[in-house]
Structure formats: structure tokens, C-alpha cells
UniProtKB/TrEMBL annotation, chain B:
A Pfam family reported for this protein in Swiss-Prot or TrEMBL: BPD_transp_1
PROSITE patterns for the chain: ABC_TM1
UniProt organism field: Martelella endophytica
UniProt entry tagged with the keyword rRNA-binding: no
One GO biological process term: amino acid transport
Residue ranges that the Swiss-Prot or TrEMBL entry lists as coiled coil: none
Domain ABC transmembrane type-1, first and last residues per copy: 154-348
Keywords from the named record: Cell membrane, Membrane, Transmembrane, Transmembrane helix, Transport
UniProt name for this protein: Amino acid ABC transporter permease
Family of this protein: Belongs to the binding-protein-dependent transport system permease family. HisMQ subfamily.
Amino acid sequence: MQIALLGGLVLFVWWLAGNTHENLTERGIRTGFDYLWRPARFPISESILRYDASDSFFWAYVVGLANTLWLSFLSILFATLLGLVVGLSRRSAHPLLSRFAGTYVTVLRNVPLIVQLLFWYAIATSLFPVPREALNPLPGVFLSIRGVYAPALTLGPGASMLLIVAAILLVIAIVAGFKLSAGKRLSVKAASVGLSVCLWVAVVVGLSGMLGHPVGLEAPALKGLNFRGGMVLSPEFASIITGLTIYTSAFIGEIIRGGIDAVEKGQWEGGRALGLSERHIMFRIILPQALRIIVPPMTSQYLSTVKNTTLAVAVGYPELGLVVNTVINQTGQAIESILIMLAVFLSISLSVSAFMNWYNARVALVVR
Amino acid sequence: MTDISFKIADAPQKPPKAKRKPLLKLLFGDLLSAFLTVLAVLIIVGLIPAFNWAVLDAHWVGGPAACQGGGACWTFIGAKARLILFGLYPPSEQWRATIVIVLIVAMVLVSLSPRLWNARLLLVWAVAIAAMLVLMGGGVLGLDYVPTSKWGGLPVTLLLATLSLGLAFPLAVLLALGRRGKLPVARAISIFVIELVRGLPLVGLLFVAAILLPLLLPPEWTVDKLGRTLAALTIFAAAYLAEVIRGGLQGLDDGQIEAAEALGIPYWKMIWHIVLPQAIQNVIPPLTNTAIVMIKNTSLVLIVGVFDMLSAARSASTDPAWPAPSTEAYLFVAAIYFIICFSISIYSRHLEWGVAARTHG
């Protein structure tokens, strides 16, 4: 039985390899990884790493990967925060809020992500006004058909020094806030940390003023037909980050709610018997225990979010999948490109699960 | 002998409901509640422009010329429904695609009742699917031949979903059994296939199928685009279903298999009559979840250029005669997907109650 299985497998792979070889020679495609070092000669519309068309194919992959990771990081971060809000809202006794969150989850979970992405992209590119009539929901933030414009940090001479000092001061401010309120109630703790951060802002702004404003905020301003200055999010990036965050937050909300529901009800009863408030029970007793249940499904959710970033090809944001596809179209090096993509996604999967397993082991209940 | 572990019967314990409070106190009882109330009201107020756009300012009648101004252009959906639902399918043959949709919906409705689940139903499904393919493709029985490149819209979405799930299921059972089984070679192959497929995004797998399949197969075999995407969707669904079924197998009491072995029941008979029915019953909720995921995933075939409902909607909205109504087109498609997926999740909840009632009743 075993031998037959193994033999069949070997024959099958051999047959596939033979076909591939024949097809490749017929089409005159060279194989091998030496193409990686040739110049890529195709543009990548936006990237967080510096790229231009004369860079090598290898660098193009790296740029695509960086975009994938950046997108994953941001959408996971935002989706976790939003998902926590959604999950807690669904569990809350507040009737308006829990209904609202329930509808949100039901609708978003039952519509394919790619439809949602295209929907946001359609809104960003057709319903938003031209730059001249841009929507201005927050001061300094403009929504227009050309993208989302927001104030950006500008760095003048001496900025790096100031940033380093500011970072050190921030750590000191937070630690001091915790130290000063050690053993006090949570609200006192939060208030004292908040106060020290306010103090930090004042000191940093003062320092910046003394040094002649090396770090400033530059708001986008309308000049001619478009905005100048500030930070711009392309419609592609804005729509994919919105779509991924909102879609993922519905799933994370359900995971968190499930975790809360799975905590034994005796824990609630115990808390009530001690006369604690519902809110106190939730944040001090239930949530910490729910975390143990939440971590494993959260890991798979994070992983699928990373994989979902490849849907960005639908709106044309150049993450790894789009770069790989372009490379294949340009060079015909399909097998190599796909192997690279496979290796990248497998290593991301494995490292995320390794990290989450470590974290899981840390928060796991120690029995005996 | 009734205490076979039916995992899903132990529904998660819900925390007890807090004591009922009067509505006013709930909404404005303390600072946080009041804040949340204001927040919820603000969100609802924030949604008013969207409501205006979709209903009050919307255009319900008239042609492209009527759709000037701010509101949604629902007349577009009316005008383009044919294109979105049937794609490029020849209008004169459209009745065939309609029958296919009706047939799939009818088959699904028939299969809803667990009482009808037996080998005969499988046979009926096989016949029905063959009939659908003949109807779509034609070329026999006096029907005109319609190449798969002309197939499009909702029938393609539904066919891809049912076929990929149907073909993936037996594959998934084999993979799951292989992974749980005693043969090291089979176990290694199963683990390799499952983990490889699950590690890749579906978009990547679709690229692999679209580009690599023609390279891997002999030059004289041609698999068209639809077949390649179906292959990718099937292997993807199989890997995920296999993990779900493995969960069901793990939840099965070892005593069941030992008893069957002691009675000298042959392996495949034991699997078919004893192991699978119990294992699958245990994993109905995750199975339906996977089904929903796969139905949503069919929309991804747009990326490799298969003309499903979403691509049809996208190409419909590029008609220059209409003022860029893509938002409405996507909302329409989203509504169809929502109806399908939401019904499945309601059905799954209903099935769970059934199982719980039978095991605890």
C-alpha cells in the first residue's frame, strides 16, 4: 500500500516535470534565478521603499513585499482596535450600541472582501469631489478624487536630535505616570499617565520653538488644480486600507465576543456576589480570561489578513502579488516567481504563528 | 452509550443577563452610558447623507439622462440587470442560464432537510450538475454550443461555488483521513498539501493555476480558463475542509473505531457508516462557515479574468452612457452575496439546533 502510494507519487511528479520541461523548451523560456539581478524596467506606482524602474527584479520583489507588510501591519493594527470596540459593543447592555454592532458584523461578514474593496475604491474615485471642492471632515484633512490629503511632519535641520530627545522624554513621562500612581485605581493611573503625556507635549513643543521649529506640521494646501504639501494617501491605498480594516474588524469583533461568551458564567456571578460593577467585572475578570480563548483564532485571523492583502491587485495597489504578476508577464519566469511568492507567504505564516504560539504559551492558564 | 462527545451540543455558556434596567437608565444611567448613547446617535446622524444618497435623492425611473445630480442611480441596475446576472451569455439562449440558476436553487432547497441526506441524493446531485453543464455549454440535444468564454454572471458564480465545494469534499475527506491515518507516506503527503495550500493566499493559487497548469500538463491537453480557476478553488476548498473534517475526526471517541475493528468491519465500510457520519455531524458549524467563505471566494476569479457576477458588474459600470454608477453596481452584487451567505448562516444555526435537540432531547 505504502509503496504503491509512493511509487504513484514519484511517477506523477516525474510526469509533471517532464511536461514542464517540454513546454518550457517549446516556448523558449529560460529557467533559473539569474534574472533577479537584471533591471526590472517597470514602474511601481507607490512604495514605502525607494524604487525606480532601473532597479533589479530582486529589488522590485522587496519593494512589493515591503508594501505587503506595511499594509498588513496597518490593517491589523486598526482592525484590532476597531474589532475590540465592535466586540465590546455587541456585548454591551446598551441597546442602541449592541444592535448597531450586530448589524455591522452581519453585513460585513456576508459580503466578499473584494466587493467591499471595489466599493470603497468606486467611492474614492467617483463619488469624492474634485480637489477644488474637496471634503474637509477634520481640519487639515481633505478627501478628494485624487486621494486623501493629511498634514505631514516636516523635518528641518536638527530634527533627529529633537526626535531622539522627545522619544526619551516620552518614555520617562509614561514611566513616571505609572510610578506615581502605583497601587492606585485604574482611572487614577490613566489620568496620571495622561497628565504626564500632556506635559511631554508641552515640553516638546517648547523645545521645538527654542530650536527654531525643526519639526513642524505641514498642512496640504490647494494650489492650482491639486493639493501641495502634506501627506497623501492614494485612492488605491486609502480604499484598500479602509476595506481591509473594516472587513477584518467584523471578524475580530466576533472572535472577541466569542471569547467573552466562553468565559464561565460563574466568573460573572462571583464578581456580582462581590458587589463589583458590570464594567469592572468585564475589564478586570472576564477580558483577561477571555484573552486565552481569543489568541488562537486571532492568530488565524491575522494570518488571513496578511493573505488578504493580495486582493489589493483588484484596485491596483502594488503589493507583492501584483509585482509577481507583473514580473511573470514581463519575463515569463513563472515558476521562479511563484516559488518566491510561496516562500514569502509560508515564512510569514510560520513566523506569525511562531510568535503567537509563544504569546499563547505566556498567557496560557497554568494548571497544577 | 449515548455519551458520545457531541462537541457542538455544548453551546458556549453565555454570561447571565444583567438585571433588566429601565431604558432611560440604560441609555443615560451613568457618564459612560450617556456618552455611548450620544456616540450612537452621532453615528446614526452621520449616516443620514448616505441614506439620502441611497433613498431620498436617488433616481428610480428614467434612463441615463435622469441620473444627473447627487443621488444613487438605481435605474442603472434595472437597465443592466441582464448583463450583471448573465454576463456575455447570448441573449437568445438566456433561458438556459435561467434554468441553471433555478436548478441550482431548487437542488439546494431540496437538500436542506437532513432527512433526505443519503446516497440517492448524491446521485441526483451528480445528474443535476451534468444537466446544468449540458444546458450551459450546449452542443448536444439540438442546443447551440456556447463556449465557456461566453459564460458569465450569476450562473458562473453559483456553478463555481457548488462544483468547487462538491469536488473538494471527497478530496478533503481523503486528506483528513490521510493526515489522521497510520500510513506515514500518506500522512506526509496530506500534511504537505494541506499546509502548502493553506499557506498561500487564494489569489496566489489562482495565479498558479492560471499560469502553471498549462506548463505542467502535456501540450496537447488544453484546460480553459474556467477549468483552471475551478481547479484552484477546488484544491483551496479541499485544504480548508480537510482541516475542519480532521477536527471532527479528532472529536470522535476512539472506542467507536476500536469497536468497529473488533467487529471485523472493513476499513472503508467503517469510515462510511460509522466514522464520517459522526465526525461530520460534529463539525457542521465550521463546515457551513467554510462554505460561506468559498462562496465569497468565487468573487476572486475576477482577478484572473473569469467573467463572474462581480466582473460582469464591473464591466457594466464602465458603460460611458451612464454617469459612473459603479457604487450602485457593487451594492447590487453585495446584496446578492449577502442574501446567499446570510441564508446559509441562518440554515447552519437551524441545523445546529436540530443536532442539539436530537442528542439532548
